[in-house]
């Protein structure tokens, strides 16, 4: 029997269609600043899943690996 | 966690982004799989999803596993952290700051005792690396002390054959090319974090020097020049912006000013942080919780538009939430008192929570137990909302002190992770499908 890891459903959309509003402009910049460590894991079956975790080489420092919440420690 | 929007994959498929918070890895999955992940409906061929950790056994206590991994990481750290305040004074007078500042002499004895403590940690064989973070007050008000201590710390690390890493959190106003070179070369500081609170006039009003003067243009000028200085090509900068009602809507002009100064650079990373209470009343300046997540997205979009570097999603699970939860970390105030948490030493109401004086603690021993060493037990016992929270592996509970004060410190990531995922897919080059 399996269930879903971290099954949080999230808050309602924050900014109406912000993504589509900014998509063209931002997509143009994409690729020049961020490199995607893409590796297609499984093409063949009907579950399609590809990892796109970004390479971390261009970003530095402890904070960038974590989530900030206020104090200088995080 | 599944993003809200669909994207076109180069193979022609329509996909949605998914974050596995346990590993901090991001995937694209087909729409049907995304829906099943959201709805919690498993099917026969889900072995691959299980392999990536997106599916787990129903009787598997993921939170317990995450908390145990954190407990072990805090206990078994091979890095010894010292947060050192070479000054208790600050030359700025920011309205929202919860510290009180005073001029304190860092005595010769205190310096010798601290240097000895660091040297013993280096020699003890327990650690691979010493990690020093210069903090204050404004640490550059104690520039000579910082250089003197750095010289002793680095010599001890070299002699013991352990690594040495150092970072400084500064208001930036006292930086110049000469000091940056000394900090980088002699004090082996590799990362400088400064706070800039918005476009020049807003920054200068919200973070005024005690003299009344502004500092924005000077700071970005010094950073811009440092990025072109070959002697400083190993130095990284972080630009933090404390987001309050005074600047929440000013991401765009701020990002434009930074980019114009040459800070859209691989060695400069930016992040927004909400103004928060250190125990002081910040209700006049803090952005209401409900609006923070959206405000933060606006800042990310502005960073992106102007080519500034930033991180949308955590790169790794957060095992040790902060210095206060591991006895391999300690905070040494300018007066020599030792604490476990960075928001005690200069904060009214917490100053007496010190764990002893650096001169009287046994130099070979870890700092005495602090208020938050039992943090992982607190989490495990369900004393906070974290145990049932989807982002616990990457958040770690954010701030034990604020939880204990009854102020849940949940970062806005909790509220905008799905939007961040969409922006993440976009910035990785995928086209949204309207
Ligand atoms: S601090 Fe808040 S967001 Fe972080 S793990 Fe705890 S409940 Fe979740
Ligand atoms: S307990 Fe909170 S304030 Fe103290 S160091 Fe940890 S994150 Fe910072």
From TrEMBL, chain B:
The keyword Repressor is assigned to this record: no
PROSITE patterns from the UniProt entry: RADICAL_SAM (PS51918)
UniProt keyword terms in alphabetical order: Iron, Iron-sulfur, Metal-binding, S-adenosyl-L-methionine
CC cofactor: [4Fe-4S] cluster
Pfam family, any one: Radical_SAM
Location of the Radical SAM core domain: 75-309
InterPro entries for the chain: 4Fe4S-binding_SPASM_dom, Aldolase_TIM, rSAM, rSAM_sf, Sulphatase_maturase_rSAM
Record-level Gene Ontology MF annotations: iron-sulfur cluster binding; metal ion binding; oxidoreductase activity
Family: Belongs to the radical SAM superfamily. Anaerobic sulfatase-maturating enzyme family.
Name of this protein: Radical SAM/SPASM domain-containing protein
Annotated organism of origin: Winogradskya consettensis
């Amino acid at each position: 029997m399996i269930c879903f890891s971290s099954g949080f459903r999230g808050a309602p959309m924050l900014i109406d269609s912000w993504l589509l509003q900014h998509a063209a402009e931002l997509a143009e910049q994409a690729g020049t600043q961020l490199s995607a460590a893409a590796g297609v894991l499984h093409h063949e079956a009907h579950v399609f899943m590809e990892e796109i975790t970004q390479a971390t080489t261009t970003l530095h420092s402890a904070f960038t690996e974590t989530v900030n919440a206020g104090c200088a420690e995080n | 966690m599944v993003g809200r929007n669909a994207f076109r994959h180069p193979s022609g498929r329509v996909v949605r982004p998914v974050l596995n918070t346990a590993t901090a890895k991001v995937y694209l999955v087909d729409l049907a799989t995304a829906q099943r992940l959201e709805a919690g409906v498993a099917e026969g061929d889900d072995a691959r999803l299980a392999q990536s950790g997106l599916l787990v056994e129903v009787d598997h206590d993921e939170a317990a596993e995450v908390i145990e991994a954190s407990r072990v990481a805090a206990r078994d750290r091979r890095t010894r952290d010292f947060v050192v305040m070479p000054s208790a004074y600050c030359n700025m007078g920011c309205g929202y700051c919860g510290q009180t500042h005073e001029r304190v002499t860092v005595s010769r004895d205190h310096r010798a005792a601290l240097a000895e403590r660091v040297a013993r940690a280096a020699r003890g064989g327990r650690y691979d690396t010493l990690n020093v973070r210069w903090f204050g007050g404004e640490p550059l008000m104690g520039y000579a002390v910082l250089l003197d201590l750095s010289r002793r710390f680095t010599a001890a690390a070299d002699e013991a054959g352990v690594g040495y890493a150092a970072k400084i959190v500064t208001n930036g106003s006292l930086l110049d090319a000469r000091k940056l070179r000394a900090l980088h070369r002699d004090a082996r500081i590799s990362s400088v974090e400064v706070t800039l609170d918005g476009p020049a006039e807003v920054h200068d009003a919200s973070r005024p020097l005690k003299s009344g003067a502004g500092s924005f243009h000077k700071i970005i000028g010094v950073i811009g020049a440092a990025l072109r200085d070959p002697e400083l090509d190993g130095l990284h900068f972080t630009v933090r912006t404390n987001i309050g009602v005074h600047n929440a809507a000013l991401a765009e002009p701020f990002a434009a000013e930074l980019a114009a100064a040459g800070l859209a650079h691989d060695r400069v990373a930016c992040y927004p942080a909400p103004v928060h209470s250190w125990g002081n009343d910040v209700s006049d300046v803090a952005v209401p919780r409900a609006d923070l997540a959206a405000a933060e997205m606006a800042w990310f979009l502005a960073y992106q538009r102007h080519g500034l570097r930033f991180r949308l999603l955590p790169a790794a699970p957060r095992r040790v939430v902060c210095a206060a939860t591991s006895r391999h970390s300690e905070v040494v105030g300018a007066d020599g008192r030792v604490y476990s948490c960075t928001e005690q030493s200069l904060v009214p109401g917490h100053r007496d929570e010190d764990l002893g004086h650096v001169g009287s603690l046994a130099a070979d021993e870890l700092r005495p137990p602090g208020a938050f060493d039992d943090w992982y037990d607190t989490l495990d016992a369900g004393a906070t909302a974290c145990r049932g929270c989807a982002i616990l592996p990457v958040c770690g509970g954010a701030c034990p002190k604020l939880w204990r004060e009854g102020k849940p410190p949940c970062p806005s990531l909790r509220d905008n992770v799905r939007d961040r995922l969409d922006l993440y897919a976009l910035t990785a080059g995928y086209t949204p499908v309207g």
